[in-house]
Amino acid sequence: MTRSVTIGELARALDARSWGDAALPVIGAAEPAATSPVGPDGGVIALAMAPKYAEALKPGSMAILAEGMDPEAYGLKAAIFAPRPRLLMAGLTRAFDAGPDIAPGIHPTAVVDASAVIGADTAIGPFVVIGPGVRIGAGARIGPHVSVGRNARIGDQALIHAGARIAHGVHAGDRLIVQSGAVIGGDGFSFVTPEESGIEEIRRTLGAREDIRQQHWTRIHSLGGVELGHDVEIGANATIDRGTIRATRVGDGTKIDNLVMLGHNVVVGRDCLLCSQVGVAGSSRIGDRVVLAGQVGVNDNIEIGDDVIAGGATKIFTRVPSGRVILGNPAVKMETQMEIQKAMRRLPRFAQQLAKLQETVTRLLEKA
Amino acid sequence: MTRSVTIGELARALDARSWGDAALPVIGAAEPAATSPVGPDGGVIALAMAPKYAEALKPGSMAILAEGMDPEAYGLKAAIFAPRPRLLMAGLTRAFDAGPDIAPGIHPTAVVDASAVIGADTAIGPFVVIGPGVRIGAGARIGPHVSVGRNARIGDQALIHAGARIAHGVHAGDRLIVQSGAVIGGDGFSFVTPEESGIEEIRRTLGAREDIRQQHWTRIHSLGGVELGHDVEIGANATIDRGTIRATRVGDGTKIDNLVMLGHNVVVGRDCLLCSQVGVAGSSRIGDRVVLAGQVGVNDNIEIGDDVIAGGATKIFTRVPSGRVILGNPAVKMETQMEIQKAMRRLPRFAQQLAKLQETVTRLLEKA
Amino acid sequence: MTRSVTIGELARALDARSWGDAALPVIGAAEPAATSPVGPDGGVIALAMAPKYAEALKPGSMAILAEGMDPEAYGLKAAIFAPRPRLLMAGLTRAFDAGPDIAPGIHPTAVVDASAVIGADTAIGPFVVIGPGVRIGAGARIGPHVSVGRNARIGDQALIHAGARIAHGVHAGDRLIVQSGAVIGGDGFSFVTPEESGIEEIRRTLGAREDIRQQHWTRIHSLGGVELGHDVEIGANATIDRGTIRATRVGDGTKIDNLVMLGHNVVVGRDCLLCSQVGVAGSSRIGDRVVLAGQVGVNDNIEIGDDVIAGGATKIFTRVPSGRVILGNPAVKMETQMEIQKAMRRLPRFAQQLAKLQETVTRLLEKA
């Protein structure tokens, strides 16, 4: 599948200025070193927003340059000038993304319950299973082997990749993207023992164990669903458990990366980024515009304010006020963590200095 | 699908005392603020085990209260008194869990090998694949797109959610629950190099590398299976690898959360809780009633005693005696970790104090 | 399925020396305690490479022993002597691995696009979906519910387990192994805000936040594919995202364990081992023969040299030179980490010593 636009059309779509022959057809994007002179059917365009990248461009090719760079110096046939490079990258890549290519219509092998309501212009792949009472909006693209459980509701323009699992009662807004293997609406991990359990005991005693005994775990079932806002994206093999009584919730515009885990009853606000392998334990609440870098962990029943940013592998055990930038295990302010790390590296030296000082003082004492 | 019981029946089922009109039908559970006056078809019941929750109840509704609370003060029509709230929660949620709703019988699209033996009263969804020699007990519910490999054996009353993978030779007891996307019986991650590998070298030299050379990894195949006891639950997208020669084993009553990894040859005891994103490397052994909180890591070939509790993100590199409560990376006793963390936060101040003290002592020495 | 070879054939296949009756048939491997006297149809062979293991062998059974051990002392009927035990283990387990048992040919339920080219001697299971333009080499075994997207290319002798996802445009070499639920070629997690985002701000200000404002995330699409070399293995539920413009790449001979995450544009070299739950963020580059133990995290845009070994749960935020052995969060040389950990355990005592020393010095000052 080849898409092609002229470089002039592309510049207009990207709200950017073009230079050179605006009629040249662009058929895709490439790295600077992978460019070649534009041929009769057009050519690829490279991102080369700094001279060090632009040097690899082939003469006669096309590129996106930063303002102030000279396309003639690189022998280009045409160029686009990028005011904000990464934003332009979004537009450029969207223009050439052919996506997973699911054939329009409902594949004959799909099992769609008669009571399900599917919007117009959908593409549903082979072996998809859609349960009773499901509603899916217009323009949905659903890859092979996806299952959507009873009474789930999904808005317009959804893109659900192969093998994703949307369990019964999950509700999602418009423009939902679910990568392959994600599981939305698994049962919460919530158990209780008839007597006080070891975990309850150490929470009460802050670590001491008095009396260890047999304990069998009885399951607390998950009756709540999962509610996802508009423009939510869920990564490959991520898991979002359903709530116990109320729903687990993810706000509008929040993006969730691969292998992330959201426990039962978790609430995540709007426009957050939860990077890969983040885990948020049951009933924690995360504000708006929060960024959790890869492998961050959030204990259960924790509150994280708006605009918090947590660096990679930060482990959060206590409430985090809004706007804070945190790092480390356990999480502290990033600048404090930096000081702690510096001091830790000097620790073995401290130990030596302290020992020497003790000796000196002992000698001084003897003299005194 | 609506289930309904009277509040009197529900109280009896929960082994608890009811108050008010015992004939009112209960059709589900809700949060206190989401209640409404009981109508002719009944209503939802809220959990409101403390006054701060009960204040949100709507007059004319139904609730579960703690002993000593006054249902009339909240204008309730009926109430249940909970002796141990979380245990009651288990009973309540079980009563109203409609589950994944798989139609009874074997879906015509399922591919079940002629030599497989499936018990009575099973519900097997669309596109399920069941291999030769498989035995599945009575009352199993198996969601769409599940695969069960050759000679696997699963006990009675299993619930296997959409897209779970049970590989060949896996054995499981009764009341097995497998959430979507879990993979039971993948091959172990076990490789060997013809010559000593870098890993073997640093284990021998404790970190030093003398001689770095080419190394190609040859696979050690996994001939062992996976054995799961009765009442085991496996979370969404968790993975349990098969053993090399003997089986990887999980004991009765153990619950495993989403995205947990158990390596080849691992043995986990009875009634453990392994929370989300826990990883246990190959050949480690975990005792009974062990609780590993989210993101805990266990090195390979480690022994963890009975009744150990490890806090969130604890990394375990060495043997842990029974009954110990541990925290941190590397794991130490929780109380020691608390002291270490306190001291770490004071570290930058220590550094200053130490420097100042050195100055003072230097001056004293000059005087002496 | 029973395979059987004579112990003499097995010894020759393993390039090892046999002892005793070389004609005895071996039908599988077992642990020493699970052996029994060889019967008329043969028996299992146990690995017992040290006397403590060999003591559990049953008289009349067969075993693999270390050089210098005496088979008559254990009453064995036959034995094989292993020069390098773990290497022999690879040969032994390969000899008896029956694998996932996918029937030869293409299952009638599989949906294979007419334009796909599939090599000879393949076994493709039920409900497999293979898209347009796909090329798969000879001898492939593909389990049930696998999907292979448009224009993907896979070499000879691939083994792809049930429910694995190979997205459009993924290229892989020969002898590829993909465990169940792995997702190769999901979209990268790459977003941009129209204005500078909070993350960009703290990278610039090193932690300070001046001005918090609304931010919506715009998606950067992933046009690059994923390129896997020869002899690559991908673990269960691992995820490898596609690159943005160029491909995400994994070199020949590299093995990737369960639940590992490789972000967009990541490059991993040859003959690496990436253990379970490792996460490598976008655009990082990893050299050849690198070993990352379980739960290691690598920040984005990091370079890791050849022959680096990182211990369990190491978190890597900065460049690592070739050959280094690292441990801890943040990663430091393993020997430095050992010293830091020792000092940390002594920290509370340091604090006491420091306080006492301060007192002493104060008293000395008063006297002076």
TrEMBL record, chains A, B, C:
Its EC number is 2.3.1.191. Pfam families: Hexapep. SUPFAM superfamilies: Trimeric LpxA-like enzymes. This is UDP-3-O-acylglucosamine N-acyltransferase. NCBIfam families: PRK00892.1 (NF002060). The active site is at residue 264. Keywords: Acyltransferase, Lipid A biosynthesis, Lipid biosynthesis, Lipid metabolism, Repeat, Transferase.
